[in-house]
Design a protein that fits this description.
eight-stranded antiparallel β-barrel, 210 residues, 1 helix, single chain
């Protein structure tokens, strides 16, 4: 029994010492703290309301996103990453009377905490604020368009979370889900509060950093 205990104690010591040495060498590598890049992709967008949702038929619409980001690493794996994106949102909704598509464009400013446990993968989450640029409604029956800026608030607030793969040649691919935490609509037309939500898939290029 003592021999077995001694063997496992020695094995644990060797493994622990090897991991400590490998970790020390890893952290001795000089990595850039500051980085930045550009990104673009698609948003699969819709909306939700907590009231009378059964009265509406909601469909996703495909929009776009384009922008840039910067990040600052506090240590080897933890960073803050603010972004500036032009982001398309909206939904295709239908009730007993209307068949409409609300086509929205925002300037989004997410501020994400980025955790990078390994070189090729990071996890990100954080708050996001949006500034409405335009809001247009398309009547799917007639094909006509009208400005509906007064139906949507100037500011939109949400929470974003997702994952990103860091590929060779400075390319990264991210998948992110953003859900609204405040109503995007005014009460001028929409009595019920409507919240933006969308799935975002983007490809980026790291100009500097990781």
């Amino acid at each position: 029994m003592r021999r077995i205990f001694f063997f496992f104690s020695l094995l644990a010591f060797i493994i622990s010492n090897s991991l400590t040495e490998a970790q020390s060498k890893y952290y001795m590598k000089k990595e850039p703290k500051l980085g930045y890049g550009v990104k673009a992709g698609v948003n699969i967008s819709s909306q939700s309301t907590p009231h009378m949702e059964s009265d509406y038929v909601l469909k996703n619409i495909i929009r776009f996103n384009v922008g840039g980001y910067c990040n600052y690493f506090f240590n080897k794996s933890l960073a803050i990453q603010p972004e500036l994106d032009i982001s398309g949102k909206g939904t295709h909704w239908q009730d007993y009377y209307d068949n409409m598509k609300d086509i929205l464009t925002y300037i989004d400013i997410p501020v994400l905490i980025r955790y990078q446990p390994i070189k090729f993968l990071n996890i990100e989450a954080g708050p996001q604020a949006g500034i409405r640029v335009s809001a247009v409604q398309k009547d799917m029956k007639t094909g006509s368009h009208k400005n509906i800026n007064e139906y949507y608030k100037t500011f939109d607030y949400g929470v974003a979370f997702g994952v990103e793969a860091n590929l060779p040649n400075r390319v990264n691919i991210s998948v992110r889900y953003v859900v609204g935490i405040a109503s995007a609509t005014t009460e001028l037309l929409y009595v019920d509060p409507w919240f933006n939500k969308f799935l975002q898939v983007s490809a980026g290029f790291r100009i500097k950093g990781r």
